[in-house]
């Protein structure tokens, strides 16, 4: 597979690679990109040292060590800051591989990763993750006709075990009731993430959340610095930027994907926000 990653890394780094579906990168030197990337792979990053800052689906995240970062396929991601002492192990899995595990819908931890890709680890959990990485590494170094099945079973077993612990942490966090306004903001962001291709009017989201458009815009502005309408527009443009830079889709296809009535309408919408036409932005 031609990996679409939200960073560049040293290409001469030794990789453990199985059929382009499962790739291990050991402590790569990474550099950030200046644009959002639409991921076509799931990337698990086991962080031992340093920090990483970025956005996933326009939600800010900042990680410290020790931690696990899981950037899911289909998400639009930017990596904006990598500390000089950053040290981590990377596991890159294709959609084909993760689909073969058949676990995402059964694990609540995956639902929480859609909103927050960062999970703080205890030392024992960090050691467990490192052991999993080493075990998989050894599997990839052997010539075994059952390698795919071994990888599937090891990864599935790990995520079930780790997912249980992570979900307990998530459930405990949820039991600490959030302030009503914070909950409203989070629900609004979730609704935009799910519906931005079809719905760009604030009235739709206000109706979904049982508040008035004026009140919703006021709350979002106070919490995020942007009005609700601006947040919706920015989310659409964020997605468009990622599709322009990290896919081979034509501008017409991107316009259709984002449900614009025409390519020219999409072009005007994009240029009003970015100051460049979609084609000019792609060529940057």
UniProtKB/TrEMBL annotation:
Signal sequence interval, chain numbering: none
SMART domains: HTH_ARAC (SM00342)
Stretches assigned to the HTH araC/xylS-type domain: 186-284
Keyword entries, A-Z: DNA-binding, Transcription, Transcription regulation
Gene Ontology molecular function, alphabetical: DNA-binding transcription factor activity; sequence-specific DNA binding
Phosphoprotein found in the keyword field: no
Residue ranges the record marks as coiled coil: none
Name assigned to this protein: AraC-like DNA-binding protein
Organism for this UniProt entry: Sphingobacterium siyangense
């Amino acid at each position: 597979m031609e990996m679409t990653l939200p960073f560049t890394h040293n290409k001469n780094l030794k990789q453990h690679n199985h059929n382009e579906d499962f790739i291990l990168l050991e402590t790569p030197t990474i550099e950030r990109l200046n644009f959002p990337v639409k991921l076509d792979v799931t990337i698990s990053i086991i962080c031992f040292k340093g920090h990483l800052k970025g956005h996933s689906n326009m939600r800010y995240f900042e990680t410290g060590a020790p931690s696990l970062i899981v950037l899911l396929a289909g998400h639009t991601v930017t990596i904006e800051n990598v500390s000089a002492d950053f040290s981590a192990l990377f596991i890159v899995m294709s959609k084909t591989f993760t689909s073969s595990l058949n676990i995402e819908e059964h694990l609540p931890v995956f639902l929480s990763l859609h909103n927050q890709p960062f999970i703080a680890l205890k030392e024992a959990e960090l050691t467990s993750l490192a052991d999993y990485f080493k075990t998989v590494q050894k599997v990839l170094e052997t010539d075994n006709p059952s390698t795919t099945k071994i990888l599937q079973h090891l990864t599935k077993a790990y995520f079930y075990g780790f997912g249980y612990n992570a979900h307990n942490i998530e459930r405990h966090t949820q039991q600490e009731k959030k302030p009503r306004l914070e909950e409203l903001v989070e629900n609004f962001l979730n609704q935009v993430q799910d519906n931005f291709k079809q719905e760009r009017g604030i009235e739709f989201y206000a109706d979904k959340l049982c508040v008035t458009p004026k009140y919703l815009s006021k709350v979002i502005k106070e919490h995020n610095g942007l009005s609700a309408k601006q947040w919706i527009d920015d989310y659409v443009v964020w997605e468009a930027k990622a599709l322009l830079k990290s896919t081979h889709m034509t501008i017409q296809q991107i316009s259709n994907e984002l449900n614009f009535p025409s390519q020219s309408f999409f072009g005007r919408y994009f240029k009003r926000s970015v100051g460049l036409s979609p084609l000019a932005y792609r060529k940057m």
